[in-house]
Design goal:
Strand order of the largest sheet of chain A: 1-2-3-4-5-6-9
Number of strands of chain A: 10
Oligomer: homodimer
Largest sheet of chain A: 7 strands, antiparallel
Number of helices of chain A: 9
CATH class of chain A: Alpha Beta
CATH architecture of chain A: 3-Layer(aba) Sandwich
Largest interface: A-B, 32 and 32 residues
Structural class of chain A: alpha+beta
Amino acid sequence: MKDQAKNYFKSLQDQITNSLTEINQQMYKEDTWERAGGGGGVTRIFEGGNLLEKGGVNFSEVYGEFSKEFAKTLPHGNGVQFYATGVSLVLHPTNPFVPTVHANFRYIERGDTGWFGGGADLTPYYLFEEDAKHFHQTYKNTLESFGSDIYPMFKKKCDEYFYLPHRKEARGVGGIFFDYQIENIESKFEMVKACGDSFLESYLPIAKKRMGHEFTEDQKAFQEWRRGRYVEFNLLYDRGTIFGLKTNGRVESILMSFPKHVRWLYDFMPKAGTPEAELQKCLESPRDWV
Amino acid sequence: MKDQAKNYFKSLQDQITNSLTEINQQMYKEDTWERAGGGGGVTRIFEGGNLLEKGGVNFSEVYGEFSKEFAKTLPHGNGVQFYATGVSLVLHPTNPFVPTVHANFRYIERGDTGWFGGGADLTPYYLFEEDAKHFHQTYKNTLESFGSDIYPMFKKKCDEYFYLPHRKEARGVGGIFFDYQIENIESKFEMVKACGDSFLESYLPIAKKRMGHEFTEDQKAFQEWRRGRYVEFNLLYDRGTIFGLKTNGRVESILMSFPKHVRWLYDFMPKAGTPEAELQKCLESPRDWV
């Protein structure tokens, strides 16, 4: 499974970065890096262009030994030997009417046991219900052939995971999230490939529809303020970010997920009745979008 | 001790915010808040003015019950009943040649046992050795009468605490840091008062000297990039921030410590030989400033 997964993730990175280059009308910058403990990766960064203020699409294949403490936290597999390969991406558009998007698909082996994990979620600054619906509908359609119970389950897990308890807010309008897909691994691989191949379909139509929208300085400032929540989530709660930073991961590939411009304001809340307040309201409780 | 400590911290907040209002030529905004579990505080926020892009000086007096998990992590006192009062402040100046400063002085009781903690540290964006020396020398002079071993001990603790392992960088040029000052509590109170009363002397001469310095957009951008480290430190490592956010503290009073404008750039490092590179170099290993 290792090689199949790795080859798929490598091709998924190409598929996604080729399309992004086209729409962004600007090439990414590529960094190939090695990991001291074994393996390495290829990080592709977009900075500037038609669509993206900052965005990264990372492929990695790493292996070696988990720390004993980390190994203990894993419910599957045995020992400390591991192999992990995957794609992760975060895209922060310039235009505040285009949502930020995150996706990650990965295959992990510990000892003789392998599993898939991943997901995709959308973080709008201004709420267009049709965009949230489109994003969710895409993954619902994709997952339908793997069982009609899959999408609702992954949707719920996404709402649970991308939540900021200290703010009592969701990070965004959710999407799908799954981990430890361990049984019938061949079928799970098909499912992950189907999700990965749906990414562009889930996001690009939204980006294309909104990227020409005119915006004001105040709307840009609101986007930068909301982006503070993205940073708070990733540093306080995101398992991958914290694990990576505390275990000598490649800092720049981990924090490529951060927006370029962020602002924190003391005790700011948008005025009632504004589109900004509508977005805040929407983040208070998860909705069924499809 | 409770009342004496509280009264001192309340007056320290006044002393500091009065002087800051004068130099900033703009009044703070004041919020009085109550804590659901017991107690409350007064948060004073500066936004804009001659000196400060954003700054907060917080006084609080809170009491009630620690969670059992948190109580377990404390090496002193018994049970879960607590009382805590203190002042904490973070000042982020507009001008990149003026350093950010943080200070915190607190008195905590758990059961029948009370102790003081606190410190002050300086985070420059451009290094002026004389400023770092002045800051350290002020606290060294202040602490001298409490024993000549105190300043070196507190200086070392500060270097150890304000360190970002994932960046292999200090947060700034340090200062003093201490906790669990439990023996001879009356004498420790004198020491804390002496440190608190030295704060303005440690910082204002630096701020006054640098706040009129001309700066370019690139220098401002460098400051915003460095501020990303401040956010990373506070969310990943700062015990007070993490404890507050994860235990239902008042989010806006905790995150008042965050700068207004922050930026993250992929894999950025200043060019060798520049003042920006000199600052980075300085953060690689702690120096003896006095």
